[in-house]
Write a structure and sequence with these properties.
3 strands; mainly alpha
Length: about 100
């Protein structure tokens, strides 16, 4: 792979992640992210925006198709990003 192709890939990847980041912020803002009630604190539930009634379990991986198919995004689907944003907010509130 030459340099130009590498750069295109990087830009595309950032683009894809940025779109997910925006969706992730929406998920957190609309209260669709919460900690799993009967398990350890590292398990979160994220309601799907696109599939009504679907809930994804997010630990250090997410159970959605995006996370399992889009390996090039290193598991950073919008649910995972939402989990990270949500976790950071909680951390700030506690300190
Ligand atoms: Zn996901």
């Amino acid at each position: 792979m030459d340099m130009a192709n590498t750069n295109i890939t990087q830009v595309w990847r950032i683009e894809a992640l940025y779109a997910r980041l925006e969706r992730a912020r929406e998920l957190v803002a609309s209260g669709k992210v919460y900690q799993s009630p009967n398990s350890d604190s590292d398990r979160y539930l994220v309601e799907s925006q696109t599939h009504k009634g679907a809930v994804y379990t997010v630990t250090d991986v997410c159970t959605c198709n995006d996370a399992s198919i889009r390996h090039e995004l290193t598991g950073l689907c919008k649910h995972m990003l939402a989990r990270i944003i949500y976790g950071n907010q909680e951390h700030e509130e506690m300190s």
